[in-house]
Write a structure and sequence with these properties.
The chain has five helices and eleven strands. The protein is an alpha+beta fold. It folds into two domains: 1-44; 46-89 and 144-265, outer membrane lipoprotein receptor (LolB), chain A (Clam).
Length: 281
């Protein structure tokens, strides 16, 4: 009798252990297979994934952003950095853009406040004869690069909208960005196609860029999280340098993080905008 009870108890323990082992296999194996399935879909149609990425940002609402722009000028490589936040639903943002130190050491780093909005860029502490308490307003469609380069920082949503013109792309693999698992894509976007597919707020500026850059095809690397949101995107632009009759290569990187962070941007009143002549620099 005692022996039968012991065997019955041992059998129940073994059954429970087997069930637990099966559960662990499902937790690890099923999860792994889910990631593998998502990676397989990402590899199967990366162009479609990238076309959808700007919409994912709109659904996310907002985020913090960091930007950097690297270029070589006069034999010196300079980097302009920016930091701020962006509201993708309203397509407005605020960046503090730090200009590099003068190569001769004559000037210290200077920070320019930039307000980004559909069709216009506002800059404060612009220098060049502009009073410190006034803003400079620039129509982005009037710039030959559509403000992808001119402001020293690529508008975060414009950087995302460029992916709407992706012509070819490959899924490189999985990696991580600031501790977040991401999928790395590499490809080429067509500025003209991006302009056609862009939102109304970005369309005119991207059309100007498609005409003004040395080539309408822009190589990029993009890193998307598991929700399809852009965490990092790096574009390599090439535009004509009229003075030296050559082209200038610019690498622009945008980092997005802290999605859902509150973003409050108030555009300047007309009386706060400088209406005088901006000195040549």
């Amino acid at each position: 009798m005692v022996e039968r009870q012991r065997r019955r108890r041992d059998g129940a323990v073994a059954l429970a252990a087997a069930a637990a082992a099966g559960l662990m296999v499902c937790v690890t194996g099923c999860s792994g297979s889910g990631v593998a399935a998502e990676d397989a879909r990402a590899a199967a149609d990366p162009v479609e994934v990238l076309h959808k990425a700007p919409g994912k940002l709109v659904r996310a609402g907002s985020s913090k952003a960091r930007t950097s722009m690297e270029m070589a000028t006069g034999g010196t490589r300079v980097t302009i950095r920016g930091k701020g936040a962006y509201n993708y639903e309203d397509q407005v943002g605020r960046l503090e853009v730090l200009l590099p130190e003068d190569p001769a050491g004559a000037e210290e780093h200077r920070s320019i406040t930039e307000l980004l909005s559909p069709g216009a860029l506002y800059m404060k502490n612009r220098g060049a004869g502009v009073p410190a308490d006034k803003w400079v307003r620039v129509e982005t469609a009037s710039l030959s690069d559509g403000n992808l380069v001119t402001g020293g920082a690529t508008d975060p949503f414009a950087a995302a909208e460029l992916l709407r013109g992706t012509r070819e792309a490959t899924f490189v693999g999985r990696t991580s960005f600031a501790g977040t698992p991401v999928r790395h894509y590499r490809g080429t976007t067509d500025l003209a196609a991006a302009a056609r597919g862009a939102s109304a707020g970005s369309r005119a500026a991207l059309r100007a860029a498609a005409k003004g850059f040395a080539t309408a095809m822009v190589p990029f690397d993009a890193y998307l999280d598991d929700q399809g949101r852009i965490r990092k995107v790096r574009h390599r632009f090439s535009f004509a340098n009229g003075q030296q009759k050559g082209t200038v290569a610019v690498a622009s990187t945008t980092l997005l993080y802290d999605f859902g962070t509150p973003v409050d941007v108030r555009l300047p009143d007309a009386t706060d905008i400088f209406a005088g002549r901006i000195a040549e620099q």
